[in-house]
Design the sequence.
């Protein structure tokens, strides 16, 4: 599982998008929620 | 206000007359401070250049209501580094193509109720080892790729470990990247 983010020039978090394309399909449902939670925490 | 450059030494005595210069004293700079009866007075006081190991000597001279002046005790003031205000830009500037590792923990706490209305505390702690790889900084921002590894989810019910369903645990452990 990976995620692509953009850090603004001042160091703040800009856009973020999780990439689950390399995660097995039957695991994506579980990891999608965890990914969203992690990016929100970041 | 009298200010001059001189050698370090003990404070010099006050007096009703201007005190004579001592060995090593430079010329005095005299600045008039206008007192308006508010309890204090302010003025920009020019200071002379200091020689090696010299200090500033400062002596206020106060004139009372009858016009009688009094030379207050002169004190030495050791010079400090002058401050120069300069504008500076503070910017986030990570090293491109550099990879960092971090441990990420998100803790979740919930209160849930069962069918009988009894309250329970549910804790969900998600942990991951995160690798961060920065791209080349640009004016619009810096690209950052996060890789999540070693995912784990700890579930507690009423502060006691709660076993995840085997299927969920297996899905968390499955990883290809």
Sequence:
């Amino acid at each position: 599982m990976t995620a692509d983010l953009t850090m603004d020039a001042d160091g703040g978090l800009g856009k973020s998008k999780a990439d689950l394309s390399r995660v097995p399909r039957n695991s994506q449902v579980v990891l999608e929620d965890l990914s969203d939670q992690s990016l929100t925490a970041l | 206000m009298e200010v001059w450059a001189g050698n370090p030494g003990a404070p010099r005595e006050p007096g009703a007359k201007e005190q004579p210069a001592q060995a090593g004293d430079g010329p005095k700079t005299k600045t008039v401070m206008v007192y308006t009866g508010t309890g204090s007075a302010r003025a920009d006081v020019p200071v002379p250049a200091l020689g090696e190991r010299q200090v500033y000597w400062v002596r206020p001279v106060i004139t009372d209501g009858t016009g009688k002046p009094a030379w207050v005790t002169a004190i030495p003031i050791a010079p400090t580094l002058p401050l120069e205000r300069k504008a500076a830009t503070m910017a986030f500037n990570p090293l491109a193509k550099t990879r960092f590792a971090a441990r990420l923990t998100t803790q979740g706490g919930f209160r849930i109720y069962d069918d009988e209305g009894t309250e329970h505390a549910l804790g969900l702690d998600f942990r991951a080892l995160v690798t961060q790889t920065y791209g080349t900084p640009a004016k619009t921002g810096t690209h950052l790729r996060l890789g999540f590894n070693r995912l784990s989810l700890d579930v507690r019910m009423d502060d006691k470990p709660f076993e995840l369903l085997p299927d969920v645990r297996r899905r968390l452990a499955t990883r290809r990247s």
About this structure: The mean pLDDT of chain B is 87. Chain B touches chain A at residues 91-92, 94, 104, 106, 108, 126, 128, 134, 139-148, 151, 153, 168, 171-172, 174-177 (CB under 8 Å).
